[in-house]
Design goal:
Elements lengths: L6 H15 L5 H34 L4 H4 L2 H10 L15 E4 L2 E4 L7 H12 L14 H15 L5 H6 L4 H9 L4
Antiparallel strand pairs: 1-2
Helix pairs in contact: 1-2, 6-8
């Protein structure tokens, strides 16, 4: 009921309900309480009709959920309605690089010089860094890696090299805008 009423309406509803439970409500206040409940029921009915209309259109045009919502929105809704645990957060892995067969995770600490120097050189000279990426198919980790390289070197990765990794400039910009990138 609280979601269907404005804050002042809900406050008045609570006050009137309190009076009703203590048998100190007047007939005018009882009428007011009935009006508030009727408005809330009308809003609920209107919302139900709107949802039925939306569901009918979705069924009529055979629209799938992923056409309407992003995977993040679907996941958030599933958490809100308890379909998946709300407390479990998606684990975000740091960029992982490889050089001469040795793996490196690029955390908050700087990379060791044995990979840092050749990686930064390749990046600043405009060469592809695909050979340094341990997980080239993980678009998010690649985007975070490139965004971090761009930030630390003040160089922009070439668009044709982004295509080689199946990334877009927007993915790089989005990854760079997130905290911790």
């Amino acid at each position: 009921m609280a979601k269907l009423l404005s804050d002042p309406e809900f406050q008045r509803f609570a006050d009137l309900q309190q009076k009703q439970s203590s048998f100190t409500i007047t007939s005018e206040e009882a009428d007011e309480l009935r009006d508030i409940v009727a408005r809330a029921q009308k809003k609920r009915d209107d919302r139900a009709l709107a949802m039925q209309a939306i569901e009918a259109h979705i069924a009529q045009f055979d629209i799938s959920p992923d056409e309407l919502f992003s995977s993040e929105q679907i996941g958030d809704a599933a958490r809100v309605y308890g379909l998946i645990p709300a407390s479990r957060k998606e684990r975000v892995l740091p960029p992982q690089l490889v050089h001469m067969g040795k793996p490196y995770q690029w955390t908050a600490r700087p990379l060791p010089d044995d990979i840092r120097l050749p990686l930064f050189e390749a990046f600043t000279t405009g060469a592809s860094i695909k050979v340094y990426l341990a997980t080239p198919r993980d678009a998010h980790r690649c985007a975070v890696t490139i965004a971090r390289l761009e930030k630390e070197t003040s160089h922009r990765y070439a668009d044709d090299l982004l295509e080689e990794l199946a990334l877009t400039r927007r993915q790089i910009d989005d990854a760079g805008a997130k905290p911790g990138a």
